[in-house]
Hints:
Chain A is mainly α. Chain A has one domain. Helices cover 79% and strands 0% of the residues of chain A. Chain A is globular and about 50 Å long. The two termini of chain A are 27 Å apart. The model of chain A has no long low-confidence stretch (mean pLDDT 85). Chain B is of the alpha/beta class. Chain B has 2 domains: 7-223, 3-Layer(aba) Sandwich (Rossmann fold), CATH 3.40.50; 228-291, ACT domain (Alpha-Beta Plaits, 2-Layer Sandwich). Chain B has helices at 45-52, 74-77, 96-106, 112-122, 138-151, 168-179, 195-201, 219-226, 238-246, 268-279, 294-302; strands at residues 7-15, 20-29, 34-38, 60-65, 68-69, 81-84, 156-160, 187-192, 204-209, 212-217, 229-235, 251-257, 260-265, 284-291. In chain B, the strands form 3 sheets. Chain B has a 6-stranded mixed β-sheet with strand order 6-7-8-3-9-10, with helices on both faces. The model of chain B is unreliable at 306-310 (pLDDT under 50). Classes of the chains: A mainly alpha, B alpha/beta. At the A-B interface, helix 1 and helix 4 of A face helix 3 of B. Bound molecules: adenosine-5'-triphosphate and magnesium ion. Adenosine-5'-triphosphate binds next to helix 1 of chain B. Magnesium ion is lined by residues 45-46, 86, 160 of chain B.
Amino acid sequence: MTTFFTDVATIxxxxxxxxxxxxxxxxxxxxxxLLAVVFIGFPGDRLGESVDYASFLASGLLMLxxxxxxxxxxxxxxEDVQRGFLRPILVAPVTRTSIVVGKIxxxxxxxxFIVSVMVLILALxxxxxxxxxxxxxxxxxxxxxxxxxxxxxxxxxLRRAESxxxxxxxxxxxxxxxxxxxxxxxxxxxxMRYVALVNPLTYGVDLFRYGTTDVNEIPLVADGxxxxxxxxxxxxxxxxxxxxxxxx
Amino acid sequence: xxxxxxxxxxALVKRYENVLALAGLDLAIxxxxxxxxxxxxxxxxxxxxxxxxTLLRPTSGEARVFGKDVVRERPAVRPLxxxxxxxxSLDTELTGRENLDIHARLYRLPERAARIEQALDMMxxxxxxxxxxxxxxxxMRRRLEIARGLLHGPSVLxxxxxxxxxxxxxxxxxxxxxxxxxxxxxxLVLTTHAMDEAARLCERVAILNEGRIVxxxxxxxxxxxxxxxxIELELDRPEDALPLLRAKPNVRDVWxxxxxxxxxxxxxxxxxxxxxxxxxxxGIHAVRMREVNxxxxxxxxxxxxxxxxGNLA
Lengths: 248, 313
Ligand SMILES: Nc1ncnc2c1ncn2[C@@H]1O[C@H](COP(=O)(O)OP(=O)(O)OP(=O)(O)O)[C@@H](O)[C@H]1O
Ligand SMILES: [Mg+2]
């Protein structure tokens, strides 16, 4: 078990050393959602009668960035393997699970960084704030583990890049729209609401929104339980898929 | 009791979608041997190395490293392996030292700093260790990769075409570095299509062609198996010599290399005078004799000529 954590730390260290040179990428990760909030959030705010649509949407968009980034991260991991970038790590005596977990943790640190910077900036002109930092963090962690795992599973079952992209869009768009990201789940028409309630993202968005705006529509215990199960399950499935798909 | 072999494969087959890359490979490599796996492009060398390094699952057959099965006992095999891949695999965003440090951690080595220093010294890379890999020359990167491959003290080191793309000096210096490893008891598996490299470094070689071993032994044995001597002649009218020579019963083979006529005979000292007698009207400028070398053997066994880039001609 200690070797597992040592290995995870090593993978994480390698990723962080590589991020040093990715400043432009990091800037893009921050600027994009910022623009989205400015261009969608404020006009939307004026249209809707809800009190504070800008901060509602801002927290939802942050979650969108985090989950789509996580799915992309899972995909990139498999792509790197197929291109042979990870061979030196794959021949080393480390378990595939520690590689997956190390990669996810690196992604999580990146997400925390992006979210912190974004919340600080957005706090200047919306009501976004770190109301419950630990709750926001918990949601970030669960979403990152769960959706990197999801990206890995998707990428290992689809061979070519084009099919990954179209399937990813096909699968993720309904996932995003039926998650309370853009509109409260309560406002969704009946059947869609049920879909939203089996969508793990709904619980991630809800907990994250509670963490950053102090508003939520689902009991926090339910959020916590669903997210825990989702994160653990997806990571385990992803680690297995990774192990089996490799050395094909 | 027989000693455990360093590398052993039995009827190893690897089939990609529609390519049979390995068609029943049988290898036996003794511990401590510098072994050369030779073959033209596409022969299956990298495929064989990838399977032995646990990165690729064979379609059928068996492969063992120091008695451990590379499919079923992967966790036990991995610490024994060192590998330098055919194409570059350093993290270019990191410095050389950082690359080695990550590697040392992946193998959970104690006394990392000292070991890294030692490995860098051995490959003459200590001076440039803190430069970003992106800024290093191809030869330096190669030396760094070898330093990395050796860092954890593997029992068997796989080098997949280590001198590809290196200049003459870099190649020779790399060979010297590798020579120094011979006394350490390391087993080396070197794939190459550079015959001078194999002749220089390897005690035993196997020639792989289209996924099969077509010849194996010491370089000398392989040359002897092919047998004969080569006589090279520079002539005024080499074209006219070919039909004359082909008609002679003692000439085994004859071809042109860059306007030089090359003749294979059983025993050059006895054949030379009659040959010159036959050709003296064609204007002889130079005559050279040499024994069959590994490259001749390679051509003989693979049925191809190879150029410097390893392409079949
Ligand atoms: N991933 C792959 N998918 C399909 N075919 C492959 C794959 N990798 C290798 N091959 C095929 O398998 C055969 C053996 O390839 P391999 O790379 O093992 O040759 P090699 O001896 O290393 O050649 P080279 O000297 O060019 O490195 C070739 O015909 C190659 O086209
Ligand atoms: Mg190769």
